[in-house]
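Lecture 7 notes: from sequence to structure.
We start with the chain below.
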Amino acid sequence: MDTEIVRAWVEGWAASRRAAPVVEEPWGFTVDVGLPGQVTRHVLPNADEKLIRGLMETTTAPGTWLKVLTEPQTISPWLAPAWTFDDPGFLMSATLHPSATRLPAGYQLRTWSRGEVTRALVRDKDGAFAAHGQVAGSCHAGSVVFDQIETAPAHRRQGLGRAVMHTLANAAIAAGARTGVLAATVEGQGLYESLGWTTHAPLTSVVLTSSDAGR
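Predicted structure tokens for the same chain:
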């Protein structure tokens, strides 16, 4: 797996979520997130059995995550007690191009920036949440990370996700970005591929749910 793409994603994700500065490890990257369900995440560009087993056996803090760029079935035989799988995903990237933003009638779009994060919010005619997303700069030159792209169930299949992506891409281009990176869900992968994004690798997540692991 291309470590530079992973680095760009980790750096931008940390900026988007206001997490601690990324720590580069010999095997990948560590980010302290500081949330009850996600205290720390370790990101591994490659699936190394000895390394992953070692991390699982020596980690005792619940809320520690491993993000590995491989298929779930690869690491499933290595899973230690009290570690569980989260939803699968994919690491994707795209060259950014300016695009027109089109919203269906009755929807309103608002964008704003704070620091290195730009957010887009779509509301319906009553002012209720319909869709949102954000983009954050990465320390990797020319790259930004798209994050938390979401459309409310009642408003799906109307092009709102596409409008949010176009809006964020235009903002990123205006700020000098050339490349976008994101971690897609299974459901989101199809949208991003239709927008010209390329899938680089599956992204498997496991989390320690109990302090009994490794004892």
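Points to note: The longest strand covers residues 198-208. The helical segments are 3-16, 49-58, 72-75, 160-174, 186-194.
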